[in-house]
Automatic annotation (TrEMBL):
Assembly information from the UniProt record: Homotrimer.
Protein source organism: Photinus pyralis
A GO-annotated cellular component: mitochondrion
UniProt protein name: Citramalyl-CoA lyase, mitochondrial
InterPro entries: Aldolase/citrate-lyase_domain, Citramalyl-CoA_lyase, Citrate_lyase_beta/mcl1/mcl2, Pyrv/PenolPyrv_kinase-like_dom, Pyrv_kinase-like_dom_sf
Lineage per the UniProt record: Eukaryota, Metazoa, Ecdysozoa, Arthropoda, Hexapoda
Amino acid sequence: MKMKFRTVFNCIKKINIISVRYYTPRRALMYVPGDNLRKLSKAFTLDVDCIAMDCEDGVALSQKETARSTIRSILDTEKNVTRRNFDRAVRVNPVNSEFCHDDLRAVLTAKYLPDTVLLPKVEDKGHLEWFADQANALIRDEAKIDLIIYVESALAVIKCYELCKYTMELAENGKFRLAGVVFGSDDLCASLGITRSHDGAELLYARQKVVLISKAFNLQAIDMVHIDFKDLVKLKEYCEQGAQMGYTGKQVIHPDQVPVVQTAFLPNKKQVEWATGLLESFKEHQKKGQGAFVYKGIMIDMPTMKQAQNIVDILKLTSSSL
């Protein structure tokens, strides 16, 4: 994978019209139980975009305090642990649980803040207001973190636009940035009273709605977990399907899933060659004072240009892991 994309990345660097937006790649968002120091230590050695130190679903009720204190000890020691090019995230418990306040107090007052807080089971504005109050009170100085919210119930799917909009408003004067939305498929199935099928057809509407709304706010959209972690063939199929919908990454529960996911959410060689060629052609036509132009028999408009730019941006921003 590294050799496959290095050559096409080198040609990207020649294009001067690229404007890189603030963006942290999270192709694979890998959950690691916060109470298991051995698994956490191993995770820090992996080539994975985002390590989600978990206080929530991956931790038994009796181990919540252990998870919290273990994660706090990591945040208090070495900010970047073994390497620098990954997002250090913490998934706290839901706002309406008895654990969230202590989770946030532990991680947001640590010596080194997590890069991202993952807030599960968000359903109404009150959850967001409470989180904003906690973050603003606990985070010191002018520091800011990224926030990713989870859409995991029928109510949350219905209110997804409202939740994203309100979070963005709270973030304007807060100590956090809304960076993305996670689609929580299994909790949604429980909310709907259904069993998830092998092809996930019953989740198609909600899955597409979440990514559509996320992109309307220029947010990352993290796709559902593939729970059969040994079935890498089906995982690849789901990843490609999700990427085609517009998802920028996928939740991961096992290290073996990471290479499949992170490769799937990179543009392929054909896409990169098309995008770089189109942007070079645009640059040449701009020098000649020409607006609209034809590239490979197709009239190019601004939405097409944005598609090409997105492909180039994604590859450039993930180049540190290539």
